[in-house]
Design brief:
Length: about 230
Amino acid sequence: MSQMSNRAYLSLWSKDFSEAVMLDRFGKLLETVPLSATWPGFDMLTVRGVSPDEAPLVERDLRAAPVSAEEVIELARECPHADCSYEVEARWDLWTYDAEKDEWVLGPQRLEILCLGDEYDDEAWREVGHFWIHAGFEHLFTGHAGLLGAAPSEFAPADPAESEFLERMRRPASLSDYRQKTQDNIRKLMGWVERIDRALPLDRWQLWSEGEANFEARMESILAGR
């Protein structure tokens, strides 16, 4: 559905972060990732120097045999510099709706996990965090068109498929399933945040998205719903 393209993010700022500790801490973060049951490893590593505009210094396509967090960090140590970023891709299992089968499916969704050195991209970490996680589509954690809120928002479907989805999800039984599956996705995300908070010496963290003014509050309201 065309208007479901907003993304959800988790930004993490670490205490006493430096070139000397960044890859060790990145490894500890990667160890917390709730990897997909059908894809239990990391499948891509990209190391960039100076800024996103530069050609990658390292690119490793690991899809033939997804690797562990420890193995990813060993590869990343080829360029252990404060002006580098380290981008890792993986998959985790979230609930999504299969319109053709008219059923909910728990399956792998793409994750991107970045570590930004202190000097990378004019200290971009100050805005997005030392670690920046692209968690997936926003609607996987908020629902669509305000359907899971106390007061559904006005929304004009972009196409017939989107209109059909909204009509189907407004039915009481379907809406209950929609809320339950979205709550499960939220709990998975929040549970991961808690594990990260225990594993790393964080200064602060922030959950945010492209479409919600207060993404975390939106999720909390959905969790509180019935």
